[in-house]
Automatic annotation (TrEMBL):
Subunit organization: Homodimer.
Lineage, highest ranks first: Eukaryota, Fungi, Dikarya, Ascomycota, Saccharomycotina
PANTHER family given in the database record: UDP-GLUCOSE 4-EPIMERASE (PTHR43725:SF47)
Species this protein is from: Nadsonia fulvescens var. elongata DSM 6958
Family statement drawn from the similarity comment of this UniProt entry: In the N-terminal section; belongs to the NAD(P)-dependent epimerase/dehydratase family.
Protein name: UDP-glucose 4-epimerase
SUPFAM superfamilies hit by this protein: NAD(P)-binding Rossmann-fold domains
GO BP terms in the entry: galactose metabolic process
Pathway field: Carbohydrate metabolism; hexose metabolism; Carbohydrate metabolism; galactose metabolism
Gene Ontology molecular-function annotations: UDP-glucose 4-epimerase activity
């Protein structure tokens, strides 16, 4: 499709961790972005910081993706949205087992509403093309050690999906609904990229934007960062009796800026699809976004300790329910088809996380510090 100078990329969830970094990457690549976010898990300060880093004013809508009238009013104001990067949603695995309906409602109902409103609006615009990039997750693969002899590690995109928690199921159902949507002859103007992220970490090297979890962090690096600042006493390492090189589980940690560039690459790939009036389906394809390299928990503790400049305290704790031995991406498809490859290693991600943490020990509540 042709990208006109006045076309916008809508970023849902753009005040959040990955969305804010991706907004900056897109603006730096010359794109015009609009951010939509309900702020349920983020602060508008993140948008201000992206504006500061990019020296750009970003249209911001404080909206829930389930708000049909709100979305319509936004489209009326900005009719020229040619692409959507869809990050908005709830993402805490443990919480999703406690309040599954909230997760289905926010993630699934929200996405249905978003797709429905844009489908109708694009039909009204004579089916002008819409490129849609969805934030999926490696969590859709479930426990890949269920396959014998490690045949699915590293994990290729053709690995059968079988998520083991409600959060993961919302992601998988959204993948199905997007695929079904593009398969209809009525929606040949839809091009969808499903991006399955592995473990995003790190921050922008300026220390101005980063991850700002509410409450006690669930994830490894945000928890370690709070150990480093003294907000938490020590890290609990959830099990050291796994069949790995040091007994702790292996994950594919990817710098958030590499992930952000992956979105730009996916968008550019979708934009290369020439509208075909004779086609009877739209386009939909899934890509893993990972480095292809796995690190253990202890290796990550060592990498972050090196960034901080001292050994961070930890103790071995019982295994966490639902954890699996190894989630490492096979990244070849994205490397080959998107022309995208990660540039940063885990050490650089740890250094950037530490810069962000030192400058913002209370997250975006420290807005005066920046
Ligand atoms: P985040 O919570 O920082 O960002 C999500 C944003 O969506 C937040 O700003 C939140 O306020 C907003 N939001 C939530 N529900 C909304 C709604 N109904 N309407 C409008 N806005 C809403 O999370 P993140 O880490 O930046 O993740 C972004 C996306 O990537 C999510 O969809 C998440 O599931 C997915 N993902 C994240 C990870 C990860 O480890 N961070 C891994 C794989 C996939
Ligand atoms: C990493 C490793 C823990 C905390 C989660 C979601 C997944 C995706 C990414 C959204 C594991 C260990 C952790 C701690 C620890 N998100 N750990 N002590 O579980 O791989 O993936 O985030 O889609 O869906 O499940 O990431 O950072 O929680 O854990 O020992 O205090 O660190 O056991 O081995 P996970 P994580």
């Amino acid at each position: 499709m042709t990208i006109t100078d006045d076309s916008y990329v809508l970023i849902t969830g753009g005040a959040g961790y990955i969305g804010s970094h991706t907004a900056l990457t897109l603006i730096e690549a010359g794109r015009k972005v609009i951010i939509l976010d309900s702020l349920v898990n983020s602060s508008v300060e993140a948008v201000r910081r992206v504006e500061k880093l990019s020296q750009t004013k970003i249209p911001f809508f404080n909206l829930d993706i389930r708000d049909t009238e709100g979305l319509k009013a936004m489209i009326e104001q900005y009719p020229n949205i040619s692409a959507i990067l869809h990050f908005a949603g709830l993402k805490a695995v443990g919480e999703s087992t406690q309040i599954p309906l909230d997760y289905y409602h926010a993630n699934l109902t929200g996405t249905i509403n978003l797709v429905d409103v844009f489908t109708k609006s694009k039909k009204a615009q004579n089916k002008s093309p819409i490129n849609f990039v969805f934030s999926s997750s490696a969590t859709v693969y479930g426990d890949v050690t269920r396959f014998p002899n490690g045949v699915m590690i590293p994990i290729p995109e053709h690995c059968p999906t079988d998520p083991i928690n409600p959060y993961g199921r919302t992601k998988l159902f959204i993948e199905h609904l997007l695929r079904d949507h593009t398969q209809s002859p009525q929606n040949t103007n839809w091009n969808v990229a499903i991006l399955r992220y592995f473990n995003p970490i790190g921050a922008h090297p300026s220390g101005l934007i980063g991850e700002d979890p509410l409450g006690i962090p669930n994830n490894l690096l945000p928890y370690l960062a709070q150990v480093a600042t003294g907000r938490r006493e020590k890290l609990g390492v959830f099990g050291n009796d796994y069949a790995s090189r040091d007994g702790t589980p292996i994950r594919d940690y990817i710098h958030v800026l590499d992930l952000a560039r992956g979105h730009l690459a996916a968008l550019e790939r979708l934009e290369k699809i020439t509208p075909d009036t004779t086609a009877d389906t739209g386009f939909c394809r899934e890509w893993n976004l990972g480095t292809g390299e796995g690190s253990t928990v202890i290796e990550m503790v060592d990498a972050f300790s090196a960034a901080v400049g001292r050994d961070l305290p930890y103790e071995i704790a019982p295994r966490r329910a639902g954890d699996v031995l190894d989630l490492t991406a096979k990244a070849d498809r994205a490397n080959e088809e998107l022309g995208w490859k990660t540039q940063f290693d885990v050490q650089k991600a740890c250094e950037d996380l530490w810069t962000w943490t030192k400058q913002n020990p209370q997250g975006y509540n420290d807005s005066e510090a920046n």
